[in-house]
Amino acid sequence: YIMKILIADPLSEKGHLNFNLGVIEWFKNDQHITIDYYVSEYMQCAMQLVCKVFPDRDLDKTNIIKYKIKQLKILNDIISYANNHGYDKLIFLSYEVYSTAVYMNFMRLIRKNGLELYLIEHNTIPTSFLKNIFYSIIPKKNITHIGLVTYISEYIKNKYKKNSLYIPHPMRKLPVREYRKEKTIKVFMPSFVEQKLKNEICDSFRKLGEGYLLCTKGMSGVLDNIIFKEYYDNYDEELTIADAIFIPQYFDYRVSGVFYEALQTHAKIFMSNCIFSQYMKTIFKDKIIIIDSWEEYICNHFVSEMNIPQVKKDVNENYFNHEGLKIVRENILCLE
């Protein structure tokens, strides 16, 4: 008997490309399993797949209501395809809570039994009253929610009484960088930061003067010792030459993709105080510095922290990947 698996990505977010590539590796290479894909045109091209696609225009977010309605259509196309072609398991690399909740409840009446669904949680764990209601009504039968950190899958089990499985966030291999001779301390802050906090960080950083350089996202330009770029086409290089990486966003029941890349560099990782950073600090210790007030920290402690050499330099990309492969094979593919 050959198990048929369909891996789909209804959201096909550009920022999830590396995540997707990492996860699908764990499903491959077994003669008892066939794997097919169903993604957007962009994602098919970027992942270099030969597979079913839906048009990129269906992902236009200018009108968020229309976007959610299009998600219903995409979900319907994917699930109908899976049912009509006899798939055993359907893995969603990402999903949108509202449309999924509505669709699954309508579909409950006519859903063919037997198709097992797996939903990977990105920014989907509820943080608002309304989202909480919709998340709660996603049916439990034949659906497993995948949390990318152990405490997230536990939270789903305990709070929502849903089936949940932990699978780690994959790590892609970053290029190794040669040692930099310059004395400047380079800081990289690539991810989205809400404007108020970003201003606070930038204003404090400017006071550090020219021995310190911050590269971040924004309208391209230079302001004292800060370089703003709208897009980093040399992203990997910026990461690997950084002495410090700032990840100021709050992550509670979601994870930071930048964090998993930063782990592999020589940089110290500075994060806001949140559940995710506290949890990761228990594992990676001195590699991570947790910050309550960025302004206070940058002005008073950052310089001295950067003078302390790190004991453990970087984390091998197999740290999470090996575990991911093992869990997928045991719990989803039922091979081990």
How would you sum up this structure in a few lines?
The protein is α/β, with parallel strands linked by helices and 336 residues long.
How are the SSEs ordered, and which strands pair?
Layout: E1 3-8, H1 17-25, E2 33-40, H2 41-47, E3 52-54, H3 64-84, E4 89-92, H4 97-107, E5 116-120, H5 129-136, E6 143-147, H6 150-160, E7 163-166, E8 185-189, H7 195-206, E9 212-217, E10 221-223, E11 226-229, H8 235-241, E12 244-247, H9 257-262, E13 268-272, H10 275-284, E14 288-291, H11 294-300, H12 302-307, H13 318-332
Parallel strand pairs: 1-2, 1-4, 2-3, 4-5, 5-6, 6-7, 8-9, 8-12, 9-11, 12-13, 13-14
Antiparallel strand pairs: 10-11
Record keyword descriptors for this entry:
7-stranded mixed beta sheet; single chain; elongated; 7-stranded parallel beta sheet; alpha/beta
What would your notes on this structure say?
This protein is an alpha/beta fold and 336 residues long. It has helices spanning 17-25, 41-47, 64-84, 97-107, 129-136, 150-160, 195-206, 235-241, 257-262, 275-284, 294-300, 302-307, 318-332, and strands at residues 3-8, 33-40, 52-54, 89-92, 116-120, 143-147, 163-166, 185-189, 212-217, 221-223, 226-229, 244-247, 268-272, 288-291. The radius of gyration is 21 Å and the shape is elongated. The model has no long low-confidence stretch (mean pLDDT 93).
